[in-house]
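For practice. Any example?
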Amino acid sequence: MLLKLDVTDSRPLHEQVAGAIRRAIAEGECGPGERLPAAREISESLGVNVNTVLRGLRRLRDEGVLEFRRGRGVTVASGAGRRAELVGRVRELVSDAARLGYGRDDLIEMIRGMP
């Protein structure tokens, strides 16, 4: 799995790590059930602290994209590719809405009002 961070990106590093892994899954570099490299290995390849990588991995676990299994490491959850893509699009929507002055509650209201 080849991950890259954008040095011009202003987002926190752990979000960039999560985004890079999310993209790799969405693009098919890792499939459901596949094991990710160790956090230390990812941190060395990206040039970031291992705690930064762990924070990004936990975020993806909380989103349902990754599973942490004792003795098996971190694996890609079933259906993670579709979910990762959708979560990425939702994050973009929330970000765009914030730029336009709308909050999450406003977006939820808009979604509920859709047919």
